[in-house]
Amino acid sequence: MNLESIPLQAFLIVSSALFCIGIWGLLNSRNAVRVLMSIELMLNAVNINLMAFSSYIDNNLIQGQVFAIFVITVAAAEAAVGLAILLSLYRNRVTVDMESFNLLKW
Amino acid sequence: MSIAITTQFICFTVLTLVVIIGALGVVLLESIVYSAFLLGGVFMSVAGLYLLLNASFVAAAQVLVYVGAVNVLIIFAIMLVNKKEDLKPIGDIKSRRIISTSICLTLLSLLIRVDLTNVWSLSSPQNSIGEESTIRIGEHLFSDYLLPFEVASVLLLMAMIGAIVLARRDVLSKDISTGLPVDQELIEKSSEPLLTNKN
């Protein structure tokens, strides 16, 4: 194998696998904190995708890196608000089990 | 990137293995504390992948924001809500697992197929700005991405105020609608004070 650099597809496959692991964790976790962690994994997968495209396709104007910085900003805000909501829920329900958060179920 | 290609491949393989195995550990491990620390490892390896992609500024931002802030926040949340509880068993858990796993595998195969079959229009690596990417990001942030940059600052302010409002304890002494006194007792179990005199 005679390659000049790591192929773009390698990065894309890593980020696809990370995204799917995140979705699996989001669907299957009973613990609310683990759900938040899965969301962070998915956001990281998206960031890897953006960075790979910015480095391989747009390596002069690197707009993907700027977008990755915005995604990191929004992820930090999301984590703070999500954990505050989680604490508030825990204060009301005294559990972190996702199955017991059915306030909006009709 | 001035590293030899063999070194790049070795770094990429190691980082990928850490990312995938760490992410599987995050979602599969029984103990949530182990998951949180593995998540920190995953974030660090993702920062390593960014370094392989010539993006030192975003790698530094990833380490500072994710490992330094988000992961610490998650560990604090675990510390605050970590109560041993026996989860109620769900009747149809097996069918749920099968359906969700098949959905994830289908999505993964679809994404990998798109990754491998699409023809990407790669630009020539001669145009690469390499180490000047930090300067270029700064130029972007203060010229054509100025509005999103300012909106992001407002978003962070709103998130900060929202988190404080949501997470603080209720300080009202009376219920607004009924006028009855509000129960302000802490829900945590009252613990024995430390260093009590046993004799």
UniProtKB/TrEMBL annotation, chain A:
Membrane topology term: Multi-pass membrane protein
Lineage top rank: taxon: Bacteria
Recorded catalytic activity of this chain's protein: a plastoquinone + NADPH + (n+1) H(+)(in) = a plastoquinol + NADP(+) + n H(+)(out); a plastoquinone + NADH + (n+1) H(+)(in) = a plastoquinol + NAD(+) + n H(+)(out)
One GO cellular component term noted in the UniProt record for this chain: NADH dehydrogenase complex
InterPro entries in alphabetical order: NADH_UbQ_OxRdtase_chain4L/K (IPR001133), NUOK/Mnh_C1-like (IPR039428)
Transmembrane segments annotated in the record for this chain: 6-27, 39-57, 69-90
Keywords, comma-separated and alphabetical: Membrane, NAD, NADP, Plastoquinone, Quinone, Thylakoid, Translocase, Transmembrane, Transmembrane helix, Transport
UniProt EC number: 7.1.1.-
Localization per Swiss-Prot or TrEMBL: Cellular thylakoid membrane; Membrane
Pfam families registered for this protein in UniProt: Oxidored_q2 (PF00420)
GO-annotated biological processes: ATP synthesis coupled electron transport; photosynthesis, light reaction
Example of a GO MF term: oxidoreductase activity, acting on NAD(P)H, quinone or similar compound as acceptor
Family annotation (Gene3D superfamilies): 1.10.287.3510
Purpose: NDH-1 shuttles electrons from an unknown electron donor, via FMN and iron-sulfur (Fe-S) centers, to quinones in the respiratory and/or the photosynthetic chain. The immediate electron acceptor for the enzyme in this species is believed to be plastoquinone. Couples the redox reaction to proton translocation, and thus conserves the redox energy in a proton gradient. Cyanobacterial NDH-1 also plays a role in inorganic carbon-concentration.
Subunit structure: NDH-1 can be composed of about 15 different subunits; different subcomplexes with different compositions have been identified which probably have different functions.
Family: Belongs to the complex I subunit 4L family.
Protein name, UniProt field: NAD(P)H-quinone oxidoreductase subunit 4L
Gene name of the record: ndhE
From TrEMBL, chain B:
Pfam families: Oxidored_q3
Catalytic activity reported: a plastoquinone + NADH + (n+1) H(+)(in) = a plastoquinol + NAD(+) + n H(+)(out); a plastoquinone + NADPH + (n+1) H(+)(in) = a plastoquinol + NADP(+) + n H(+)(out)
Any one GO cellular component localisation term in the record: plasma membrane
Enzyme's top EC category: translocase
EC number of this enzyme: 7.1.1.-
Subcellular locations according to the entry: Cell membrane
Family the UniProt entry places it in: Belongs to the complex I subunit 6 family.
Record's function text: NDH-1 shuttles electrons from NADH, via FMN and iron-sulfur (Fe-S) centers, to quinones in the respiratory chain. Couples the redox reaction to proton translocation (for every two electrons transferred, four hydrogen ions are translocated across the cytoplasmic membrane), and thus conserves the redox energy in a proton gradient.
The protein's name: NADH-quinone oxidoreductase subunit J
